[in-house]
Design goal:
Helices cover 22% and strands 26% of the residues. By secondary structure, it is α+β, with helices and mostly antiparallel strands. It has a four-stranded mixed beta sheet. A hairpin with a 5-residue loop joins strand 3 and strand 4. Helix 1 packs parallel to helix 2. The protein is globular, with a radius of gyration of 12 Å. The N and C termini lie far apart (43 Å). 11% of the residues are buried.
């Protein structure tokens, strides 16, 4: 089975920040098997994303295009 596809969930900036604020309490792993933390937030210059895998190895992404809102919150 190929795992070359990522399923993305687009959220508002507010929802993205709430998700990221709760990363420390969740047992979410990145593709290397490490626990996902705020350090795993990716700045794409037009959007923000976090990437992780589910228990079956499916790649998932939570993303937002509310770039300025997230940038101003993360950089304060």
């Amino acid at each position: 089975i190929s795992r070359d596809t990522t399923i993305a969930f687009r959220t508002s900036g507010e929802e993205f920040l709430v998700f990221c604020d709760n990363l420390e309490d969740m047992e979410i792993r990145d593709k290397s098997g490490r626990k996902l933390t705020k350090a795993g937030i990716i700045d794409h210059d037009v959007s923000w994303s976090v990437y992780f895998v589910d228990l079956d190895g499916n790649r998932l992404e939570v993303t937002t295009y509310d770039y300025d809102l997230v940038a101003s919150t993360l950089h304060t």
